[in-house]
Here is the input.
Amino acid sequence: MDYNAPNGQSGTRDRRWSWPGMGYQDSPLNSGARREGSSYPGKSLTELGVDALKLLDLQLQLAQLDLKEFWTRSRVAIAILGVSLAVMVAALPVGLFGISEYVRNLFNLSIEFSLVLVSGICVLLSLAGVFWSIRHLGAAAHPLKRTRDELYANLSWMRNLLHKNEDNA
Here is the structure.
């Protein structure tokens, strides 16, 4: 389906540009056809309400798809984050005593120094896992940015349309 983009170029519909939103779908306003002699493509305030509800429905469908994609992309990162946090909590009291005793015997260190050394290394490794997970969760949340951008574009379109109707009244 071809369309004319705001810059005058034509192409196929995609999510980079949308009027009034949801670029991969037909316009909720009678497939984009404007009616002559009206500042609003619809005939009445009722049609404006119907179009706004259609737009809201499309926005919710996009949000649902993007949340599903976010969950699909973020499962591994969430699992690693949970495991890393569980390791930090559960392994510190048990494993650190054993490792620090081994380090103390191996290097002839005091028990206090070996405890601090081993716990510091474990915390650093766990923090590395947490930072990796947070970074990948941010990348997995990219589809949610599309939903936000579409919502802002749709709200802007509705705001401009309503103010245009106020100016003509």
Observations:
- Strands lie at 2-4, 10-12.
- The chain has a mean pLDDT of 75.
- The helical segments are 45-107, 111-140, 142-168.
